[in-house]
Specification:
The longest helix is centred in the last third of the chain and has 6 residues, at 83-88. The protein starts with 6 loop residues before the first strand and ends with a helix. A hairpin with a 3-residue loop joins strand 3 and strand 4 (31-36). The chain has 1 helix and 6 strands, in the order E-E-E-E-E-E-H. The chain is mainly β. A 6-stranded antiparallel β-sheet has the order 1-2-6-5-4-3, with no helix packed on it. It has one helix at 83-88, and strands at residues 7-11, 15-19, 21-27, 31-36, 39-54, 59-72.
């Protein structure tokens, strides 16, 4: 499998685009948890929204007030498969 190029763009701490996304573990208005080709990325803030999700392309657009961006190497334990399988399964 070809490794996806990871890029994070954030404008005015309000709108962002993340590429190289392999999976979305969770998201709500306070936290977005993404598995990227460079490790786990946790985005924390207020009124966060995933405005576009295209896992086939590995792209996520988000908006809201971003307070924290944290990378880690550990994956959280999944509850019941990926987000898409829980939504459409």
């Amino acid at each position: 499998m070809e490794e996806r190029v990871h890029c994070l763009t954030l404008s005015q701490r309000k709108k962002g685009t993340v590429t190289g996304v392999l999976d979305v573990f969770a998201f709500d208005e306070h936290e977005i948890l993404l598995k990227t080709s460079q490790g786990m990325l946790t985005v924390k803030g207020k009124e966060l929204h995933v405005s576009r999700l295209e896992l086939e392309k590995g792209e996520v657009d988000l908006d809201g007030e971003v307070d924290t961006l944290v990378y880690s190497g550990r994956e959280p334990k999944k509850k019941q498969g990926s987000l898409l399988s829980r939504m459409f399964g």
